[in-house]
Amino acid sequence: MHMPALRRVMTATAAAAGALALGLTGTTAQAATPLKYAALGDSYSAASGVLPVDLSSPLCLRSTANYPHVLASRTGARLTDVTCGAAQTKDFTAAQYPGVAPQVNAVTADTDLVTLTIGGNDNGTFINAILSCGTAGVLSAGQGSPCKDKYGTSFDDAIDANTYPALKQALGSVRAKAPGARVAVLGYPWITPATADPSCFARLPIASGDVPYLHAMQAHLNAVVRRAAEETGAVYVDFAQASTGHDACQAAGTRWIEPLLFGQNIVPVHPNALGEQRMAERTMSVLGLG
């Protein structure tokens, strides 16, 4: 080959190699761009009772070992965590405490990912049901279904009448702030087994007939959360199967939720560190992350 022609070939080859290298560099840089991640939600998202505590917002009883931190650590996402214990749907758009901004303020137009649990505190659903049924269970020495007999469908009725529309409004406020974000709404892992475990009564003093009553009420809440998520374009992360066998009646190291009495967390009837880790892993699996 003549020298001028050889030089032209070499120049073209070098240019092509340079373009390829530039393209690969751009692809690598793009792939390395971390997700902008906003974590919202209540105490199940905040991991209230799990150490270490996030001291940036003491009123929220938020842990730096909660599932948003686990997820962010494993994916390299840039996390803004505004989860807060006792949060209700209304706290997405209004201040929960003085100095605690509405949670949707953490969501911006360029947010890539939002995760949350919400709805369990509306109407006092969880705390009222657990405390009322626990008191009734102690008074009945664990026999019968005193809580079901007294409250009937009242918890379920409030979920349908109040929690469902509030969920849709709260999730709509998130979607309005970040129309292009992936929004993952997590269901609540099981608190009770499906049927009574007599050996659990000392730790979770619910009468034998009220254990399936509470289990069904939680299933109903999760179904409503799923419905609101799907109707607002969010992904629902289902724990119905994943958390079976990991309820508050199981042994330490197996349970994801701590019991009402003699548990290992300072906040009972909430996920422990293992539960938060498993919630993160399940969410990552559903979303195809990590």
Q: How far is the N terminus from the C terminus?
A: 52 Å
The spatial strand order of the largest sheet comes to 2-1-3-4-5
State mean pLDDT (0 to 100 scale).
91
Helical proportion, percent range = 40-55%
Broad structural category = alpha/beta
Give the SSE map.
Layout: H1 3-32, E1 36-39, H2 43-46, H3 67-75, E2 78-81, E3 113-116, H4 125-139, H5 146-151, H6 154-177, E4 182-186, H7 210-231, E5 235-237, H8 273-287
Parallel strand pairs: 1-2, 1-3, 3-4, 4-5
Helix pairs in contact: 3-8, 6-7
Account of the 3D structure:
This protein has eight helices and five strands, in the order H-E-H-H-E-E-H-H-H-E-H-E-H. The protein has 290 residues and is of the alpha/beta class. The radius of gyration is 24 Å and the shape is globular. The model is unreliable at 1-30 (pLDDT under 50).
In short:
The protein has 290 residues and is α/β, with parallel strands linked by helices.
Question: What brief labels describe this structure?
Answer:
290 residues, alpha/beta, 5-stranded parallel β-sheet, 8 helices, disordered N terminus
